[in-house]
Design goal:
The protein has four helices and four strands. With 163 residues, it is of the alpha+beta class. It has a single domain, classed as 2-Layer Sandwich (Alpha-Beta Plaits). The chain has a four-stranded antiparallel β-sheet with strand order 2-3-1-4. Strand 2 and strand 3 form a beta hairpin. Helix 2 runs antiparallel to helix 4. The protein is elongated.
């Protein structure tokens, strides 16, 4: 095993977006909306967990480059089925930030699950997907991939269910 050498690449602006969804029963969702979860504010905890996880990604994922993050944006929303999670991570560096975005979304989803698991059945983390786009990655050796021909997004091919 080895960490890939990115030293010869130019620094470019890079952005990655990762999403996750935690589905739950309507009664569970109502408890979150009404602020009746014993551990506290579910969405605030999930926001913070994701940001912290993005910053610590190289400590969690073997061989992942430590990079300087320039921004971590968070969107958490309650839908009719549960909690929708979206993280956008930005950097100007020699390698992408998809691992940081995925780690953030996954940590947020795990936090939602952890805060609810003690008193309710029927809560499951059902989806985690990601898309990346290179922003201003025109330099030689940038490794920028063209977008899919149909303009779609790359999707994480696995679905995890925790119950």
């Amino acid at each position: 095993m080895k960490m890939i050498d990115v030293g010869g690449k130019e620094k470019t602006a890079r952005t990655a977006v990762a999403t996750a969804r935690v589905r739950m029963l309507p009664a569970t969702l109502r408890r979150i909306r009404e602020g009746r979860v014993e551990k506290g504010d579910v969405l605030a905890a999930a926001r913070l967990a994701g940001v912290m996880a993005a910053k610590r990604t190289p400590d969690l994922i073997p061989l992942c480059h430590p990079i300087s993050l320039s921004a971590v944006s968070v969107e958490l929303a309650l839908s009719k089925e549960g909690v929708e999670i979206r993280y956008e991570v930005k950097t100007v560096d020699r390698t992408g930030v998809e691992m940081e975005a995925l780690t953030a979304a996954c940590a947020a989803a795990l936090t939602v699950y952890d805060m609810l698991k003690g008193w309710i059945a029927g809560c499951r983390w059902s989806e985690c997907s990601w898309s990346t786009r290179a922003v201003d990655a025109a330099g030689p050796g940038s490794g920028a991939e063209p977008p899919p021909p149909d303009g779609g997004e790359c999707t994480w091919p696995y679905r995890w269910i925790l119950s």
